[in-house]
Design goal:
The structure is a single chain. About 50% of the residues lie in helices and about 0% in strands. By secondary structure, the chain is an all-alpha fold. Helix 2 crosses helix 3, helix 2 runs antiparallel to helix 8 and helix 9 crosses helix 10. The longest helix has 17 residues. It is globular. The N terminus and C terminus are likely disordered.
């Protein structure tokens, strides 16, 4: 188990951080401390609520989701409630948020989890990705935020920030390549931990490159 105090990990020694990572990490966390927004899903650890927020935030502005997120959870407070709801009711609850395939996929995922997994979302990214509407980024976000999994969540915006910060150019700056490159760096940079700073868990292993 990694040491929260020293940042050391058991087992094989992780690769050394590139020299630019240390000041970048400090500046990034300082920026986040100054500019982080107050949003209703910040600090939430319930896997279902995390999944709802991540699905809603796909291609949608934060301000819009801030309005819909609490209302949706008030109507469907648990995964079982959502799974039991009629499709038309779920579609109605999503009305105005757009990209309605997300509502269908979220509903289908809830029904599959209840039917096949006993109502418990899996904590491993590869298992989450089997569910409807959950891709690599969303799986990484849910696994890390809800379950504390040591996995990166790098989307196009995060890849753009990392590529610019570390001088990654050309084809190497694609989200796929940056995700692969950043995985080792993100995994050996534990600064915040949900058990010690639960209200500030924007871990550099996951979302630090795209604070919202």
């Amino acid at each position: 188990m990694a040491s929260i105090v020293t940042g050391r990990r058991a087992g094989p020694k992780p690769p050394l951080l590139p020299p630019a990572c240390h000041p970048f990490r400090r500046r990034l966390l300082a920026w986040y401390a100054r500019h982080r927004r107050r949003v209703p899903w910040r600090g939430v650890r319930d896997p279902y609520a995390v999944l709802v927020s991540e699905i809603m935030l796909q291609q949608t502005q934060v301000a819009r989701v801030t309005e819909f997120y609490p209302r949706f959870l008030a109507r469907y407070p648990t995964l079982e409630d959502l799974a039991a709801a009629p499709a038309d009711a779920v579609r109605e609850s999503w009305d105005g948020l757009g990209y309605y395939a997300r509502a269908r996929n979220l509903h289908a995922a809830a029904r599959e989890v209840v039917k096949r997994l006993g109502g418990r979302l899996p904590g491993r990214p590869e298992e989450l990705r089997v569910l409807p509407g959950i891709g690599r980024y969303t799986a990484g976000a849910v696994a890390s935020l809800a379950f504390g999994a040591d996995v990166p969540a790098v989307d196009t915006n995060a890849a753009r920030v990392l590529a610019r910060a570390f001088g990654i150019r050309g084809r190497r700056k694609s989200a796929r390549n940056v995700r692969s490159w950043s995985a080792n760096w993100l995994r050996c940079a534990p600064v915040w931990h949900p058990t010690t700073m639960p209200d500030q868990y924007v871990c550099p292993r996951t979302h630090a490159t795209v604070p919202t």
